[in-house]
Amino acid sequence: MPNSRIELSPGRRFMADLSWLALKVPTSVLKRTIDLGPLSEARAASAESVPWPLIVAKAYGLTSRDHAFLRRSYVPWPHAHLSEAPYSIATVMVWRVWGGDSAALFARIIEPEAKPLVGLAAELRAAVETPIEEFHSFRALRILDRLPRFVRRIAWWYAFNSGFQRPRFFGTFGVTILGQRGLTHLVPLAPVTSAITVGPIGASGAADVTVAFDHRVMDGVHVADALDAFENHLNGPILAELRALAS
User: E strands of the chain, at which residues?
Assistant: First the structure.
């Protein structure tokens, strides 16, 4: 029997375009094991079950505030340079149904470091529950999906190579977490300067944190410094905020 021909759904078209862009980033990956035991206990005891991607996004946003290289992107034209965004924009992966098929989409969260965890949870809930045709962050996706591939990719290429537009379309960093499914995303594929993911939390409270980063913008020693600060933010102000939610 011949193979069946299956047309790409909107979500698969978007992921194909996103992968096309992400492959243009020379990515290196570093991993560190950190202790999330106290944080996990505080989260479980809090009245608001804050999703892990938001906890990570806020801690990484705090890290980006003090480490400006996390807010930079490589721009190749008109001559190669780095563009630095004035604040962080996190893109958090959410799963939606679009055009009758599942789709991995990105919810943009502006300055996650400046918002309470409860407020971040409300933003993410809106991204998950609001109809796609009504949610502002997905408006550009719906418009581009109606266009032929070569037109879509011209638009994506422009946004990706514009120092001003890139963080507004793709964020300054990405967050994707599948630890709750027992998985570790070893090489997050995203057209951002850095993407962070957290693996499953073991019985001891330890979890692997992976950062994929653009080597044109930073080096491994920069990521090591950032992960030091990231862990301090998790076990400092973020832990205190979660404990306050439980009291």
Answer: 27-35, 72-75, 81-84, 89-98, 101-110, 173-175, 194-198, 206-214
